[in-house]
Write a structure and sequence with these properties.
40% strand; 206 residues; 13% helix
């Protein structure tokens, strides 16, 4: 479990193909980091990498390794990231840690697309298009996670929604370099999922 409060921007240092063949073969990735405490990167620990929950398979000085399945590569943006790409990092939540964002599972629901950006006072206004199947879960003043960053939705119209990125978020996450057409890992608010499940007819698939 995570909070969507990024603790460091890491670098996807190395990508190695593992078992399988083709573009979605399993891969081991090495991610460089320096600010996250070593005890949060122990073998078996969970780390959010651009919003994707990965398990530490090994670690060394200034980096850790994780295995990424072909399924994860296919349904998140990790499959298209080259070596050298910058990624948002957050270690898993521990008992007693501050919950500064919202509950985030690290299980990406879909990929959203940036439609455009423009300055809005000191913030950056970003218009985003969500997959149609997920749009129903996005509500004005509700929460979403984009590339592992907890954000508040400002407005919604159909599959499109808007967010504002304040200067701090722009400086400490990769979202400061967003451009039109960028693809982002989207996780909807867990509460929206549970509310729909509780309000659905027994036996009905949401």
């Amino acid at each position: 479990m995570f909070t969507g409060i990024v603790q460091e921007i890491g670098e996807l240092r190395r990508i190695e193909a593992l078992a399988g063949a083709g573009g979605n073969a399993d891969r081991r990735v090495e991610i460089a980091c320096s600010a996250i405490a070593p005890d949060r990167l122990e073998l078996g620990a969970s780390v959010s990498v651009d919003g994707v929950c990965l398990t530490v398979a090994a670690h060394g000085a200034g980096s850790f390794f994780a295995d990424v399945s072909g399924e994860t590569l296919a349904v998140t943006t990790l499959g298209s990231k080259p070596a050298g790409a910058r990624v948002n990092l957050e270690p898993s939540l521990r008992a007693g840690d501050s919950l500064g964002g919202h509950w985030v599972s690290g299980h990406v629901d879909g990929i959203a697309t940036v439609l455009g950006t423009h300055a809005d006072a000191r913030s950056l206004r970003v218009e985003i298009d969500a997959p149609a199947a997920l749009a129903r879960y996005i509500a004005r003043k509700g929460s979403v996670t984009l590339d592992g960053v907890s954000l508040t939705v400002n407005d919604v119209a159909g599959t499109k929604f808007g967010i504002n990125l304040i200067p701090h978020t722009l400086s400490v996450t990769t979202l400061g370099s967003l451009k039109t057409g960028a693809r982002l890992n989207l996780e909807i608010d867990l509460l929206a999922r549970y509310v729909e499940r509780l309000s659905s007819t027994p036996g009905e698939t949401p």
